[in-house]
Amino acid sequence: MTPRVLISDQLSDAAVAIFKERGVEVDFRPGIDKDELAAIIGDYDGLAIRSATKVTAKLLENATRLKVVGRAGIGVDNVDIPAATARGVIVMNTPFGNSITTAEHAIAMMFALAREIPAADASTQAGKWEKNRFMGVEITGKTLGIIGCGNIGSIVADRAVGLKMRVVAFDPFLSPERALDIGVEKVELDELLARADFITLHTPMTAQTKNILSAENLARTKKGVRIVNCARGGLVDEAALREALLSGHVAGAAFDVFSVEPAKENPLFGLPNVVCTPHLGAATNEAQENVALQVAEQMSDYLVRGAISNAINFPSITAEEAPRLKPFIALAERLGSFAGQLTESGIKEVRITYEGAVSGLKIKALTAAAIAGLLRPLLQDVNVVSAPIVAKERGIAIEETTREAEGDFESLVTLTVVTERQERSVSGTVFHDGKPRIVAIKGIKVDAEFGPSMIYVTNEDKPGFIGRFASLLGDAGVNIATFALGRDAQGGSAIALVEVDGEAPAAVIDRIQGIAGVKQVKPLRF
Ligand SMILES: NC(=O)C1=CN([C@@H]2O[C@H](COP(=O)(O)OP(=O)(O)OC[C@H]3O[C@@H](n4cnc5c(N)ncnc54)[C@H](O)[C@@H]3O)[C@@H](O)[C@H]2O)C=CC1
Ligand SMILES: O=C(O)CCC(=O)C(=O)O
């Protein structure tokens, strides 16, 4: 079925063209009312947004077909990521497309503050010619304090260095080498507050960064500091900043983002030394074209080719990797499903070993597929995106091991599931025909393809079992498609994995269970 995408925010037309080119049906409904969106979201595989659409848990409940939300921009705080993940919806953003533009806005805001350009403009156009009212400050030689020196923060740093500013940065994740590379001095927050003439914020909104410029921290700033926020509303305590502006401790503030948006009123509004823009950081033709193109490419790649890039809640898979990964994802999912269908008590631990060539693939994606396969028979509504979170919530420990060295197979994946009662392992590989196969169960060698309907039997290795088993199926009119056998030792434990056409009736399964020496019989579906 052709994938369908809805664009619910104001994205550049470039996105529509890309979706169409890539064989994705697209509906362009910027500004769609939220109730209407909730009514139609069930018809779409993809939702492309900017910041206006709120992707809530409630909206996602109706999004029964949705596979991907694409944010044409950086911040995904308008998307309920845990809810999307729980429903198996990939959330991707475009982390670089608007960084330069946003950094330029921060620099523009800094100049606007330094020279009071908006107020001087209003006064001049009002015919006042107040030449003596506006006395600015020079930027050259001043210290800029950057809080959050990632993509945007480091572009701001680069531009500020070019403007002959001294730049200090507070970012716990900024390495000393990177700081050196981009020409900034890495400092602690207190030092930045004490030294900066201008402060600009470029962190995401997290529990640690919320109110990072609190009343206490504002009090630690240098008198006459000017503050720019083009990152997220709520990084600065707006009420406390109002007081600091009124007292003259803070000389000016330029804000593009507000704790409540759209900001129709705000504690900062109306103060003479405040410059505000309505979340315009990313609003240039260039940036909007970049993010629209990128989000449409990423979403199409995922919907059409299974490639994943810039996903917040899943490892990236390139278009080149996707075809190599696909058969191993199928293998991992089926090995998981095999173990899940046999699991009857609580899972404590899952160990997955990747040996040979497969160890060089994106094993995070393979593990996610194996866990999804394992949990689906027990929990139904899990997929590769939600499975790792669901496993974590249930306290299931997951251990991955990779070994480059090849054994009997070019690639081997072994899944071991530890439950309250036992440990069960199953191994598989993918042959050159691209088909996943089971090659060992509990360490006993077999060779079986996965069929839609199978019967798994464990028994004592004694003469007569195979004949009785086969004739029981034949007498019941159940046709055997493939038959794979294995045993650990002569007269020891044996297994049979049989593919049958159609489903074996429960009564037949019971009769197989009654054959002498049979320990376990389990019908399996793949
Ligand atoms: N105004 C607008 O229109 C736009 C706003 N933004 C916002 O700008 C912000 C920054 O974006 P990017 O630079 O692309 O993100 P990024 O992820 O590249 O950089 C964020 C930096 O903040 C640092 N950080 C995280 N926690 C911190 C903490 N507790 N203290 C200090 N630093 C911390 C990280 O280590 C990272 O280096 C985001 O919130 C984004 O949503 C982005 C684009 C447009
Ligand atoms: O789409 C926009 O205009 C907002 C951009 C933004 O805030 C972001 O990319 O984080």
Short summary of the structure?
This protein has 526 residues and is an alpha/beta fold. It contains 17 helices and 22 strands.
Structural notes for this entry:
The protein is an alpha/beta fold and 526 residues long. The chain folds into four domains: 1-97 and 283-313, Rossmann fold, CATH 3.40.50.720; 99-276, Rossmann fold, CATH 3.40.50; 315-442, 2-Layer Sandwich (60s Ribosomal Protein L30, Chain: A), CATH 3.30.1330.90; 451-526, 2-Layer Sandwich (Alpha-Beta Plaits), CATH 3.30.70. 34% of the residues lie in helices and 24% in strands. It is built from 17 helices and 22 strands. The strands form four sheets. Strands 8-7-6-9-10-11-12 form a seven-stranded parallel sheet, sandwiched between helices. It has a six-stranded mixed sheet with strand order 14-13-15-16-17-18. Helix 7 (151-162) links the parallel strand 6 and strand 7 (166-170). The model has no long low-confidence stretch (mean pLDDT 95). It binds 1,4-dihydronicotinamide adenine dinucleotide and 2-oxoglutaric acid. The site of 1,4-dihydronicotinamide adenine dinucleotide (NAI) has 32 residues, from helix 5 and helix 7. Belongs to the D-isomer specific 2-hydroxyacid dehydrogenase family. This is D-3-phosphoglycerate dehydrogenase. It catalyses: (2R)-3-phosphoglycerate + NAD(+) = 3-phosphooxypyruvate + NADH + H(+); (R)-2-hydroxyglutarate + NAD(+) = 2-oxoglutarate + NADH + H(+). One of its GO terms (molecular function) is phosphoglycerate dehydrogenase activity. Keywords: Amino-acid biosynthesis, NAD, Oxidoreductase, Serine biosynthesis.
